[in-house]
Design brief:
Length: 196
Protein backbone atom coordinates (compact mmCIF):
# COMPACT_ATOMS: atom_id res chain seq x y z
CA UNK A 1 0.00 0.00 0.00
CA UNK A 2 2.86 2.38 0.82
CA UNK A 3 4.49 1.55 -2.52
CA UNK A 4 1.26 2.41 -4.35
CA UNK A 5 1.12 5.77 -2.57
CA UNK A 6 4.71 6.48 -3.56
CA UNK A 7 3.98 5.55 -7.17
CA UNK A 8 0.86 7.71 -7.29
CA UNK A 9 2.82 10.60 -5.79
CA UNK A 10 5.57 10.21 -8.36
CA UNK A 11 3.07 10.25 -11.20
CA UNK A 12 1.53 13.40 -9.82
CA UNK A 13 4.99 14.92 -9.36
CA UNK A 14 6.02 14.01 -12.90
CA UNK A 15 2.87 15.46 -14.39
CA UNK A 16 3.11 18.52 -12.16
CA UNK A 17 6.66 19.19 -13.29
CA UNK A 18 5.58 18.82 -16.91
CA UNK A 19 2.62 21.15 -16.41
CA UNK A 20 4.65 23.80 -14.65
CA UNK A 21 7.67 23.48 -16.92
CA UNK A 22 10.02 22.78 -14.03
CA UNK A 23 11.93 19.82 -12.79
CA UNK A 24 12.83 19.42 -9.15
CA UNK A 25 14.56 16.39 -7.77
CA UNK A 26 13.35 14.49 -4.75
CA UNK A 27 14.84 15.78 -1.52
CA UNK A 28 15.62 19.20 -2.94
CA UNK A 29 12.50 21.03 -1.90
CA UNK A 30 14.42 24.16 -0.97
CA UNK A 31 16.35 24.33 -4.20
CA UNK A 32 15.32 26.40 -7.15
CA UNK A 33 13.42 24.50 -9.85
CA UNK A 34 15.12 23.96 -13.18
CA UNK A 35 13.16 25.03 -16.26
CA UNK A 36 12.02 22.18 -18.47
CA UNK A 37 13.34 22.16 -22.02
CA UNK A 38 11.45 24.58 -24.21
CA UNK A 39 11.07 25.01 -27.91
CA UNK A 40 14.01 27.39 -27.94
CA UNK A 41 16.43 24.90 -26.37
CA UNK A 42 15.19 21.84 -28.27
CA UNK A 43 14.92 23.67 -31.57
CA UNK A 44 18.47 24.89 -31.15
CA UNK A 45 19.51 21.25 -30.81
CA UNK A 46 20.45 21.39 -27.14
CA UNK A 47 19.84 18.51 -24.81
CA UNK A 48 17.77 19.03 -21.63
CA UNK A 49 21.02 19.42 -19.70
CA UNK A 50 22.10 22.26 -21.98
CA UNK A 51 24.93 20.21 -23.48
CA UNK A 52 25.09 19.61 -27.22
CA UNK A 53 23.24 16.46 -28.25
CA UNK A 54 25.18 13.24 -28.13
CA UNK A 55 26.40 12.10 -31.51
CA UNK A 56 26.44 8.56 -32.78
CA UNK A 57 28.98 6.31 -31.18
CA UNK A 58 29.79 2.65 -31.32
CA UNK A 59 29.17 0.32 -28.40
CA UNK A 60 32.28 -0.57 -26.48
CA UNK A 61 33.67 -4.02 -27.17
CA UNK A 62 34.04 -6.15 -24.05
CA UNK A 63 37.59 -7.12 -23.19
CA UNK A 64 38.59 -10.59 -22.03
CA UNK A 65 37.89 -9.69 -18.39
CA UNK A 66 34.32 -8.59 -19.05
CA UNK A 67 33.29 -11.08 -21.73
CA UNK A 68 30.38 -12.36 -19.62
CA UNK A 69 29.29 -8.95 -18.35
CA UNK A 70 26.51 -6.98 -19.97
CA UNK A 71 27.69 -4.16 -22.19
CA UNK A 72 25.78 -0.89 -22.00
CA UNK A 73 24.44 0.13 -25.40
CA UNK A 74 25.82 3.28 -26.94
CA UNK A 75 23.55 6.30 -26.78
CA UNK A 76 21.24 6.63 -29.75
CA UNK A 77 22.03 9.42 -32.16
CA UNK A 78 19.84 12.47 -31.85
CA UNK A 79 17.72 12.28 -34.99
CA UNK A 80 15.28 14.93 -33.80
CA UNK A 81 15.47 17.69 -36.35
CA UNK A 82 15.50 21.35 -35.32
CA UNK A 83 12.70 23.45 -36.69
CA UNK A 84 14.07 25.93 -39.19
CA UNK A 85 10.83 27.34 -40.62
CA UNK A 86 9.97 30.51 -38.65
CA UNK A 87 6.22 29.94 -38.98
CA UNK A 88 6.46 26.40 -37.58
CA UNK A 89 8.76 27.62 -34.82
CA UNK A 90 6.15 30.24 -33.89
CA UNK A 91 3.46 27.53 -33.81
CA UNK A 92 5.59 25.51 -31.42
CA UNK A 93 6.14 28.54 -29.21
CA UNK A 94 2.40 29.28 -29.14
CA UNK A 95 1.59 25.61 -28.45
CA UNK A 96 3.96 25.65 -25.46
CA UNK A 97 2.35 28.84 -24.20
CA UNK A 98 -1.11 27.25 -24.34
CA UNK A 99 0.23 24.08 -22.72
CA UNK A 100 1.66 25.94 -19.73
CA UNK A 101 -1.59 27.87 -19.36
CA UNK A 102 -3.44 24.51 -19.18
CA UNK A 103 -5.28 25.17 -22.45
CA UNK A 104 -4.69 21.60 -23.58
CA UNK A 105 -7.20 21.37 -26.45
CA UNK A 106 -5.71 24.24 -28.42
CA UNK A 107 -2.17 23.22 -27.42
CA UNK A 108 -2.73 19.71 -28.76
CA UNK A 109 -4.08 21.01 -32.06
CA UNK A 110 -1.03 23.27 -32.43
CA UNK A 111 1.42 20.48 -31.50
CA UNK A 112 -0.22 18.21 -34.06
CA UNK A 113 0.18 20.94 -36.69
CA UNK A 114 3.86 21.26 -35.74
CA UNK A 115 4.20 17.46 -36.07
CA UNK A 116 2.68 17.64 -39.58
CA UNK A 117 5.12 20.39 -40.58
CA UNK A 118 8.18 19.06 -38.71
CA UNK A 119 7.62 15.31 -38.21
CA UNK A 120 11.12 14.71 -36.85
CA UNK A 121 10.94 17.09 -33.87
CA UNK A 122 10.81 15.07 -30.63
CA UNK A 123 9.62 17.94 -28.45
CA UNK A 124 6.23 18.26 -30.18
CA UNK A 125 5.63 14.51 -29.77
CA UNK A 126 6.60 14.68 -26.09
CA UNK A 127 4.16 17.50 -25.37
CA UNK A 128 1.35 15.82 -27.33
CA UNK A 129 1.96 12.63 -25.35
CA UNK A 130 1.83 14.60 -22.09
CA UNK A 131 -1.57 16.01 -23.05
CA UNK A 132 -2.92 12.58 -23.93
CA UNK A 133 -1.60 11.22 -20.63
CA UNK A 134 -3.32 14.03 -18.73
CA UNK A 135 -6.55 13.13 -20.52
CA UNK A 136 -6.20 9.47 -19.51
CA UNK A 137 -5.56 8.39 -23.11
CA UNK A 138 -2.64 6.16 -22.21
CA UNK A 139 -2.45 4.21 -25.47
CA UNK A 140 -2.29 7.39 -27.50
CA UNK A 141 0.23 8.89 -25.06
CA UNK A 142 2.42 5.81 -25.44
CA UNK A 143 2.40 6.20 -29.23
CA UNK A 144 3.66 9.76 -28.97
CA UNK A 145 6.23 8.95 -26.26
CA UNK A 146 7.60 6.04 -28.32
CA UNK A 147 8.09 8.30 -31.35
CA UNK A 148 9.75 10.95 -29.17
CA UNK A 149 12.02 8.23 -27.71
CA UNK A 150 13.02 7.08 -31.19
CA UNK A 151 13.87 10.64 -32.22
CA UNK A 152 15.71 11.65 -29.04
CA UNK A 153 19.43 11.23 -28.64
CA UNK A 154 19.01 11.26 -24.84
CA UNK A 155 15.67 9.47 -24.27
CA UNK A 156 15.75 9.26 -20.46
CA UNK A 157 12.74 11.54 -20.03
CA UNK A 158 10.88 9.70 -22.76
CA UNK A 159 11.53 6.37 -21.00
CA UNK A 160 10.22 7.95 -17.79
CA UNK A 161 7.05 9.08 -19.53
CA UNK A 162 6.63 5.65 -21.12
CA UNK A 163 6.95 4.16 -17.62
CA UNK A 164 4.25 6.50 -16.31
CA UNK A 165 1.85 5.50 -19.08
CA UNK A 166 2.56 1.80 -18.59
CA UNK A 167 2.03 2.15 -14.85
CA UNK A 168 -1.35 3.79 -15.47
CA UNK A 169 -2.21 0.87 -17.77
CA UNK A 170 -1.38 -1.43 -14.82
CA UNK A 171 1.57 -2.98 -16.66
CA UNK A 172 3.91 -2.88 -13.68
CA UNK A 173 6.75 -5.05 -14.98
CA UNK A 174 7.03 -3.11 -18.23
CA UNK A 175 6.75 0.19 -16.32
CA UNK A 176 9.61 -0.79 -14.00
CA UNK A 177 11.71 -1.74 -17.02
CA UNK A 178 11.06 1.67 -18.58
CA UNK A 179 11.99 3.45 -15.32
CA UNK A 180 15.18 1.37 -15.07
CA UNK A 181 16.12 2.36 -18.62
CA UNK A 182 15.51 6.02 -17.76
CA UNK A 183 17.74 5.76 -14.67
CA UNK A 184 20.46 3.98 -16.67
CA UNK A 185 20.52 6.81 -19.19
CA UNK A 186 20.20 9.59 -16.61
CA UNK A 187 21.10 8.46 -13.06
CA UNK A 188 19.95 11.77 -11.56
CA UNK A 189 16.39 11.33 -12.88
CA UNK A 190 15.10 10.97 -9.33
CA UNK A 191 11.41 10.72 -10.24
CA UNK A 192 12.06 7.07 -11.16
CA UNK A 193 13.06 6.27 -7.57
CA UNK A 194 9.43 6.48 -6.52
CA UNK A 195 8.63 3.52 -8.78
CA UNK A 196 11.51 1.22 -7.85
Amino acid sequence: MILLRKIAGAIALGLLCTATGTAQTAGEEGSAPTPAPTAASEVAGESPSGAPPAGPSAAAEPDAGTAGAAVEPAPAPNVSRPIEDPATLELLRRAEEHFFQARYNIALRLFETVIEQAPENALAYRYAGDIHLKRGETDRALEYFEIARELSGEPAEEWFRIGQALYLKKEGARALDAFARARTLQPDLHFCLFYE
